[in-house]
Design brief:
This protein is mainly β. It has one helix and four strands, in the order αββββ. It has a domain at 15-64. It has one helix at 2-12, and strands spanning 16-23, 26-33, 36-46, 49-56.
Length: 74
Amino acid sequence: MTRFILGGIRKHKVTFTTGPTMVNGSPALILRIDGEIDGVMAVRLRDTRITGLYFVRNSEKLTRVESETPLSLR
């Protein structure tokens, strides 16, 4: 599968990059194609084990991915 995806990226001559982030308190990767956000892959962890893997490509759900929300103590 990975070979198929990388072959498609090479064929269409796009730039594919990733970067770490946090989504809903879980570690995640932002996936970009030619500098534009294409998707986010988030990992849910419990006791050092991966218990969920989520991939979101819906552009409406990705509008706030790069914005930071400051947290404050009450």
